[in-house]
Amino acid sequence: MKIIRDYQYVRPEDRGASAAIGNFDGVHLGHQAVIDLARKAAPDAPLGVLTFEPHPREYFAPDAPPFRLMSAEARASRLEKLGVDRLYQLNFNTALASLTPREFAQKVIHDGLGLTHIVVGADFCFGKGRAGNVTDLQAFGAEMGFGVTVAEILETGGIEISSTAIREALSEGRPRDAAAQLGHWHRIEGEVIGGEQRGRVLGYPTANMSIDGLHPPAFGVYAVLVEVLDGPHKGQYHGAASVGVRPMFDGQFPNIETFLFDFTGDLYGATLSVALVDYLRPELKFDSLEALIEQMDADCTQSRGILAAL
């Protein structure tokens, strides 16, 4: 998959894609349906996704609480697994945000990227002040020569599939409900960073990762599936992870600490993808380290049983 970040400098071979347009935070089942429509609309054209970085919501409200389900890198990885050939990950800046709906259609879709067909959700809005809607987009397509397909909003179990609903499920400690809408486990991806190495002392060495900038799931302990994406220990593992601020040790900044079962080795600097499978319990502050270790033993036993049944 090729990533193109500037619509004004696009190689001829990267033009002419059939592309889905949106933010694709989480790449949930609704997003996947939109991408599949783009694939079917022009099967001989490269399959593309047009999205933005930073997320427009981050651009317009930089001080708002973190809301993203995945980083740009994790989104790109997921899109590549879906068979996307061209990821047009455009830099969302003042110039792009200032384009009128017509200017966006002309300068970005037609002149810049040369898209042959685009697919958007029924609630898609675009251009300065979100002034353009799907009816405007269809009119521009007819005028400028690109096809437009409008995808209907998907539902599952009577619930509209949306990033908002997925965030709610994660906040309430319901990762399986989130996965039902995502079409895959919710994953936290990132580089393993140095910690205070308390886990080694306790007999549970963990791989620590920041969750800065991401929507925090319910704090607590999870049964997890772990994929080490690079390095000498690349592969898939089972484990248990704690998400939160470590109240036993008066932590302040939330992170995720993952213990890989039956693993020995150094993971510092490696990139991990940690899938939340089941929420086991909330964060707790114990009366002693012995009580903490006893609970960690129980957490790992419970996690092993859950993951073995998958």
From TrEMBL:
Molecular function terms, GO-annotated: FMN adenylyltransferase activity; riboflavin kinase activity
Function text: Catalyzes the phosphorylation of riboflavin to FMN followed by the adenylation of FMN to FAD.
Residues of the Riboflavin kinase domain: 181-308
CDD domains: FAD_synthetase_N
Organism: Tropicibacter oceani
Record's keyword annotation contains Nucleotidyltransferase: yes
UniProt superkingdom: Bacteria
Pathway: Cofactor biosynthesis; FAD biosynthesis; FAD from FMN: step 1/1; Cofactor biosynthesis; FMN biosynthesis; FMN from riboflavin (ATP route): step 1/1
Name of the protein in question: Riboflavin biosynthesis protein
Pfam families reported for this sequence: FAD_syn, Flavokinase
